[in-house]
Specification:
Helix content: 55-70%
Low-confidence stretches: none
Distance between the termini: 20 Å
Order of helices and strands: HHHHH
Radius of gyration: 20 Å
Number of strands: 0
Strand content: under 5%
Pfam families: DUF212
Largest sheet: none
Number of domains: 2
Number of helices: 5
Structural class: mainly alpha
Protein name: Acid phosphatase family membrane protein YuiD
Shape: elongated
C-alpha cells in the first residue's frame, strides 16, 4: 500500500486514541468508547488530511498537482468538520430538547420551557475550531515524521 496512506491512517488512529486521555484530563472521566466516536479533540479528519498533505508536500514538492489536490481536499474536509457537521450536532440538541416540551404539553404541565445554548454536543458529530486546529497540527507532525521515516536514504 502507498506509504502516504499508512501515514494518514496512523495519524487518524493517533487522533482517535488521544481523545481518551484528553477527555480524561479535562473531565476526569475515563471513556474508552471515544476511540470509535466522531467529534472531540483532536479532529481525526483534520489529522488524516493534514498528515497526507504534509507527506505529499515533503515527498513530491509544493508545485505538484498531488499536493494541490491534497491541500484543497484537506481544506474542504476541515471546513466541513467544524462547520456543517458541528451545526448538525447543535441542531440535534435543539430537536432533542423539543421532546421535553412535548412531554410537558401532554401532561398539561406549566410550560416553563427555557431554550438552552448548547455547551457541549451530546451527539458529537462535528468539531470546534480548536479541535480542527489540534488535529491539523497533529497531522503535520505525523506527516513530517512519516516522511523522514520512509526516506529511501535512511
Amino acid at each position: 500500500m502507498n506509504k502516504g496512506v499508512y501515514v494518514a491512517l496512523l495519524s487518524i488512529g493517533l487522533a482517535q486514541g488521544l481523545k481518551i486521555p484528553i477527555h480524561f484530563f479535562k473531565e476526569k472521566e475515563f471513556r474508552p468508547e471515544l476511540f470509535v466516536q466522531t467529534g472531540g479533540m483532536p479532529s481525526s479528519h483534520s489529522a488524516g488530511v493534514a498528515s497526507l498533505t504534509t507527506f505529499i508536500a515533503l515527498k513530491r514538492g509544493l508545485p505538484t498537482i498531488d499536493f494541490a489536490l491534497s491541500l484543497v481536499y484537506g481544506l474542504i474536509v476541515m471546513y466541513d468538520a467544524q462547520g456543517i457537521r458541528r451545526q448538525t450536532g447543535e441542531l440535534t440538541l435543539k430537536v432533542n430538547s423539543m421532546g421535553d416540551l412535548i412531554e410537558k404539553v401532554k401532561k398539561d404541565e406549566s410550560l416553563e420551557f427555557e431554550e438552552e445554548k448548547p455547551k457541549k454536543l451530546k451527539e458529537m458529530l462535528g468539531h470546534q475550531p480548536q479541535e480542527v486546529i489540534g488535529g491539523a497540527l497533529l497531522g503535520v507532525v505525523t506527516g513530517t515524521i512519516g516522511h523522514f521515516l520512509t526516506k529511501k536514504d535512511r
